[in-house]
Protein 1
Amino acid sequence: MPTCAHCGRKWSWKQSLNRMFTLSQEIQCPHCHRNQFFSKKTRTINAVLNMFIVSPLAINIFFDLTPWMLLGMIVGIFLVLVVIFPFYLELDKEDRPLW
Ligand SMILES: [Zn+2]
């Protein structure tokens, strides 16, 4: 579970998940209310794992999947990624460039 970059307190799984669905780059700590950012490592892992969401489309090239099977696989992979997100989430005080 992530630890606040400012106050050092641990976030719960639910608190981490609530902060996942934001369009802003800044994430507010539920304890000290100071803003922080996803770490470079977290953004890299996110970019790689998000490619798995569309992987059923590539699988569909080799196997004749029905649209419902495709949709089910995409939704299933998305849900797995949402559930594991708080476990690899790391926070940083600064918004560092990815490269
Ligand atoms: Zn904090």
Protein 2
Amino acid sequence: MARKISFLNYKGGVGKTSLIINTAAALAKMGKRVLLFDFDTQSNASIWLLKLDRWNKINASGEGAIYSIFEPGKAQVKDLVIKDVLEGKSGEKLLPGLDLVPTTFNLVDLENEYNGDPKRPPFLVFYEQVQPLEAQYDFILFDCPPNILRASQCGVFTSNEIYVPANPDALSLIGFTLLTEKLHKFHQLSASFRRAAMGLPAQVHGIIFNSIKQGVDIEVPKMRMQLRLNQFKTAKRAAPSAKIFNTQIRDAMVVRRAVALGLPVSLVSAEAIETGASGDNVINDYRKLASELVQHVPAAT
Ligand SMILES: Nc1ncnc2c1ncn2[C@@H]1O[C@H](COP(=O)(O)OP(=O)(O)OP(=O)(O)O)[C@@H](O)[C@H]1O
Ligand SMILES: [Mg+2]
């Protein structure tokens, strides 16, 4: 069965989308079967992986986007999966094993106009439709906005693990703290909808430092984050095995450039990638991160 994972922080712009896409690509390259859900109405992950032309068609019609499962009878999650989403100019598949369920801007309607049956909140509708897909994947990943509103709740409720991308600054620490509080509230609110077969409600299992500039010492922010994590573990608000990942992702221009190219960095041509004095580069960081994630299996699953 798939491991189901959300990347989440209450601080925006920390690198949730960049991390999830590049980690998903690294996992697919390792031969893992990966399904990525985009739950951020900004649609960054969808536009990145589909490129603008393919995504525009979905946005214009609304057909094929995640919101369509919440308009009763319109679509099922299984019909929205775009298999091997990455394509080259002539439609050739670039990375078999990486599938996407895209979003478009209409996902924002889930927060405002949606008027479904309160006994069947969106996160439950979503969970029930994802469940039959679990056996087909090793990893199901959810890219979430920096909140736990209805769209994010779908990812959080369905996941069993949360990883928190963070920058080495005070705002990321505040974002993590806020996330843990909101997560606790959401679990209380959604407890009556959980069944044993769903596994444990998602807790924070790891913190991943991202966008680290060369030569910058992050020991102090790391220590502060570790202290906060320890407090949450003691209070049972984070998983017992939660840790700061050994792998950190360097700040690299190619990560920003990869978005415009519509590719994960591992598929960007080698010349475009800054390589450090040791011959190491950011692709290796994502590869190491993916391996560390594969190793970091929660005790209860
Ligand atoms: N390792 C990195 N090196 C350089 N730039 C990076 C790196 N990671 C992320 N970025 C850049 O930082 C910006 C924010 O990243 P990203 O969109 O992944 O964050 P996010 O947390 O998903 O944001 P949001 O909260 O809006 O969803 C983007 O311009 C992205 O290209
Ligand atoms: Mg994002």
